[in-house]
Design a protein that fits this description.
Largest sheet: 9 strands, mixed
Distance between the termini: 60 Å
CATH topology: Spore Coat Polysaccharide Biosynthesis Protein SpsA, Chain A
Helix content: 25-40%
Shape: globular
Structural class: alpha/beta
Bound molecules: uridine 5'-triphosphate
Strand order of the largest sheet: 5-4-1-6-11-8-12-10-9
Strand content: 15-25%
CATH superfamily: Spore Coat Polysaccharide Biosynthesis Protein SpsA, Chain A
Radius of gyration: 20 Å
Amino acid sequence: MIKPVEVAVFPVGGLGTRFLPATKSIPKEMLPVVDKPLIQYAYEQAKEAGIKQFIFITGRNKNTITNHFDHAFELQKVLDEKEKKAMLSQVKDWLPEAGNIAFIRQQEPKGLGHAIYCAHHFIGDRPFAVLLADEMYLSEKPFMKSMVDIHNQYGGNVIGVGEVSEEKVSSYGIVAPSGATDGDYFTIKGMVEKPKSEDAPSRFSISGQYILQPEIFHYIEQAKAGKDGEIQLTDALNAMVKDVPTRAVPFRGMRFDCGNKQGFLAANIAFALSRKDMREETLETLKTLVNQADDIPVQ
Ligand code: UTP
């Protein structure tokens, strides 16, 4: 019997070095796209996919994430007294129910595989979703919901992937499909980390969302740390696909890698353009900036 996906893990224990100096004291996952932190988008994706329990793998310096998912008593009191209902709703209406949220400290940032492993006692023998706050998707149906639907039908591991240009395959983990890739999903037989474009088994890169069977913890235990001392999830997954059916679900909309500056900037513009209350003004701002670009001093 296929067990439902009830729990999501959000690894937020990384150092976010690509965003220094901003991430010296602010977690990368709290950087806002328009007016909402990256981590809240990821949480909402999971919630809209029907997931009810949320585990955050945090680290030192990440307390603002914990606070963001809690009540802000003084702020709420003031907004309540001033009858600022819309603002109050933005502050608290989306919070998880009591008892459905947990924070686990990853004591050292030893890679994504290690971060996920920190949740193993709490996950037990259930399948679970993993969502990286870095990865943002612009679509009507939450991408995680499409992945949950495939999982409910077939079980196994489900990995979110997105098509990248030939020049970009060498920057990502790329999956090796076992057959045709034109449907809603395709099975995979492995994955390669940052291949040269001529060696790449496809142009589908691993994006930041996964549904994993609990056996993954065994494969993470077996995975060796790389040169940088990090335990990579892809190494564990690569070993696991030989034993457990693993399907890739391609995302066919706009996707943003907010782990790098250009992706983050593009996400801010695209999400502003997707909002009724901001679209027109954002277009005007963009036009003005493009016209004035030559006058902007470059340093
Ligand atoms: P990244 O590699 O993109 O994040 O990991 P990072 O290491 O924080 O960023 P850079 O490369 O130094 O700029 C993807 C996600 O996995 C989490 C990160 O917090 C991020 O959300 N992560 C990474 C952990 O939770 N623990 C780790 O040890 C590493």
